Every structure is written in structure tokens, then in C-alpha cells.
Amino acid sequence: MSDLSSKLEPFLLLARSTKGAAAAKIIVDATAAPGVYAFSELLELPNIQELSTDPSYQNHYRLLQLFAYGTLTDYESNPSSYPSLSPTHILKLKHLTVVSLALQHRSLTYDQLLSALRLDTIRQLEDLIIDVIYAGLLGGKMHHHEKVLHIDWVSGRDLQEKDLCKTAETLLTTLDTRILELKQSSAQELARSNEYKIYRDREYQMISLELKSSKARQDPFGDRALGSGIGAGPAEFGPGGGGMSQNALLAAIAGGGGMGGASGRLWVCSNFLDRSMYKADRELVVD
């Protein structure tokens, strides 16, 4: 957009030193000049703003506003409010109308564009869209068979004060929505984490009970062994406890110790308890 604005510079230099009819002539020339699509700086000049209160040149000031903010529909709704427009003016106004539509929609059907631009054929429409793209006003792809223009990016147009407020409100609303989405996502992640922890602890307790029950059936001294091993709690599995951590135990059981199904789980647990019993028996002998 800065490149587009720079093309207005020669008209700005002239407008700073002219008034009345000369300033009105600058408006007519600038709005018809090739490559000039941004007009806010010209509108802000005191010499140009004076035309808005001059009955002889008010329509020229409205013409500049039309090319800064308006569309072809705005012109056609009241053409007598503006000076007579040349075909070059009308063509540029159509370009700006495409930009305005592209700012509102990511995809534009050919029917929408044909109606808004007052064109009769698809060939005329596609030629105009190509001109708009080459002018650097937007980027997109025309789909001839689908009869739709997909917008990739658009340069934008001059903004009125009311548009600035509306844009700021839209941005704030979008930001608030995004923050709310992130909060909800974080809460859902926390809930899933808590559910997993509950499931993990429940599975661990079930496996521990299964080990106790199996060992008790196989070993008459199971109470002593279990009291020294599994019954001692998770601390017995940690560093310095002479055994496996809780996570390592669950991983070994999930792997089955090289064996499949429930028998694999019990095989791993039996070997683990044998080591625990050996440790407990050795401590009793030492005592």
C-alpha cells in the first residue's frame, strides 16, 4: 500500500500551493491518474478541505471522498452530486469496488461481481479482475468453470473515522474470542490430565491387588513376602528401595516380560516379588 500511496505524492505537492478551481482540477486529475488508489493524504490537506464549504467546488470534494471510500453503487445512487466522470474514472471506480468487496468476502462469485460492476459478460469481468491484480490491489485466483474469485490478500482502502472505530471493535472482539478459546482449551487439557492420573492410579492399585492375590495362592509365606515388598507401598519401588519404580513396574507389566496376556503380567510380577522376598529374607537373617 505504501507504493500505491507514493504515486499520490506529485498531486500532494501541487495541492499544497493551490486553491479554488486549481485545487478542484487536482482532484479530477488525481482520481483519474493511473496507479493512484489512496487519497487520504490529499483529503487531509487544508486547501482541499476548504472546497467542502465552497458551493462551487463541493461536488469535487465529494468526488475525492467517493474515490477514497465509496463504490460504483454509491456513485450511481446520486451521480448529480459529483462532476462528470470520464470512462477512466468509471474504470478506476470499478477497480476500487472490487477491492471493497474483497475486503468483505474471501470468495466472490461472478454473479456478485457482474452485478456490482455493471458488466455484461464474463470476459469483461475476468479482464477487469486481471487489471486489478496487476495493479497490486489484491491477489487471488479466478476459477472460470466454477465462476468464482478466491481472494488470497487485498491491499485495503482509505478508512473513515467511523471505519477505524469499527475495525478496532472487530479486532478486540476477535482477540477476546481467541483468549476464551485458549482458556477453554487449557481447561480441557487439565481435565484430561486429571482423568488420566485417576485411571493410572486405579490401574496400579488393581495390578497390586492382583499380584498380592496370586502370590498368596502360590507361596505359604506370601504374607511375609508381600509385607516386605508390595505391601510396603510405592516407596519400596523408588531409589534406594532395591526395586523398580512404579512407572517401570507398569511398563514391564504392559510389556508382559516377553510373554502374552495375563500370564505374562503375572510372570513379571512373580519374578519381581521373588526378588523382594529375597531382600526381605536376607534382612531377617541379618537381624
UniProtKB/TrEMBL annotation:
Keywords: Signalosome. Residues 1-156 form the PCI domain. This is PCI domain-containing protein. It comes from the Eukaryota. GO terms for cellular component: COP9 signalosome. InterPro entries: COPS7/eIF3m, PCI_dom. Belongs to the CSN7/EIF3M family. CSN7 subfamily. SMART domains: PINT.
